[in-house]
Amino acid sequence: MTVYTIKDVSKMFQLPASTLRYYEDMAILTNVRRTAAGQRIYEEKHIHRLRTICCLKRTGLSISKLQMFFTYEEQETEHIDDILDLLIEQQQHIEKQLIQFQKDLEHVKRKLHYYSDIKTALTAKKMHPIWSDYREKQF
Amino acid sequence: MTVYTIKDVSKMFQLPASTLRYYEDMAILTNVRRTAAGQRIYEEKHIHRLRTICCLKRTGLSISKLQMFFTYEEQETEHIDDILDLLIEQQQHIEKQLIQFQKDLEHVKRKLHYYSDIKTALTAKKMHPIWSDYREKQF
DNA sequence: TATTGACTTCAAGTATACTTGAAGTGATAT
DNA sequence: ATATCACTTCAAGTATACTTGAAGTCAATA
């Protein structure tokens, strides 16, 4: 059975050790065992939990919602519908964000083309482009 | 020439009026004219600026980076490379996030299938599913 | 004309998610 | 053996992005 120190986990997830302790304080990372001297021992289940924490946090779930989610998970039978509701909502939220991000990427690409044409115009002394010509373009 | 009140703009972008004033304080929304009584008058250029602000903020740019960006834009000729660098970085950042969000969506979908199978198992008194069977699946 | 509502400024307050610092214990390297 | 490093707790501090409250001005409606 593989175990990890706080440093191992910190490196693995690119999270400061203080954040791992904070997640434990916030009760979203639970049942972390200790050595005789009090040092944290992380197991595979904590690695999996952290993957879920990072996934949900990245996509916009707050710490307090994470607390709810993991509380529900501990009482799966009673809270199965709460779990499903939360996951469905999160799924829809991610799908919306994906669509929005694609639009935002297009917006940035348009700006990039516009300014890159401005750079060309500046060096080659060509006509300065006009933003309205880029506003509707797909790149 | 169409103009807008703070309320119009607030509704248009689903942003509280206080946020629009804050963006002006932070100098990322500039040159807002006033009525004789001091009320803000927004023009098309502010609407375009706000679209860019929302796009860049949503995709992770901070207020201070937005300040830099719009400062560069005001001195396009001198800062053309700074503008391009910032936009290229933001483009790459969005692309990375898109890939990560797709993975995160898969993670949530896996969880959703898992818990929805648990719900079935609970009501139909079937075998309780095991998470490790879902961990690698694509939905 | 009075009052209601919408706007204004400016300073201070809030929410979220950590981060830091002090003080202490135990383990490791020279 | 001793110094240094890694970890510990707990309270307080920080960063970011707003939000709120008080006090005042102006415009419109009953």
TrEMBL record, chains A, B:
Note the coiled coil stretches, chain numbering: none
UniProt entry keywords in alphabetical sequence: DNA-binding
Q: Does the keyword Nucleus apply?
A: no
List the InterPro entries hit by this protein, alphabetically: DNA-bd_dom_put_sf, MerR-type_HTH_dom, MerR_fam
Concerning Pfam families, the annotation shows: MerR_1
Domain HTH merR-type intervals: 3-72
Q: Which PROSITE patterns match?
A: HTH_MERR_2
Q: What is the name of the protein in this document?
A: MerR family transcriptional regulator
Report the source organism: Sporolactobacillus shoreicorticis
